[in-house]
Design a protein that fits this description.
5 helices, elongated, mainly alpha, about 80% helix, about 0% strand
Amino acid sequence: MDVASQGYAADREDRASWSRLIDDHDRIAERCVDLVALLQRRHRNCAAASRKLVDLAVLVADHLGVEDDIVDLSALATEADYAPETVERMAAELAALRRDWRVYIGRWLPTIEPADWTEFRAESEAMLERLSHQVKRESALLYDDALQTGVIATGPVELH
């Protein structure tokens, strides 16, 4: 493979990676909405909630593994001209969310018991709101930075 072809392949790989992160964020946000909708129904469906939570937990775990390899959100925030205090606050909030997410998942998986539904619902609504907020903020940072640096294209990216 010549140097130009290697550069093109690396460029396509970068685009695919960043596009995947943004797609993951969208899927995480959608799954949060689905689980909240289930929580707000009149009848308690612990089995469905457990399945949805497992699905979300797997998606988040997979996403975090990829995200850590691809991007440093504090660097993105700095490049986006955020004040140092804002970058520090964002990093601290992300660290707290990751820690709280691990505790939350450890508490509620593998199954949610009917007797715990009210507590599960309250904790889940709060956690899912935080998670949704985080992925929306990350997507905005990623998308803006990726467009500015040309890592993602404005049109569809073809992957082969």
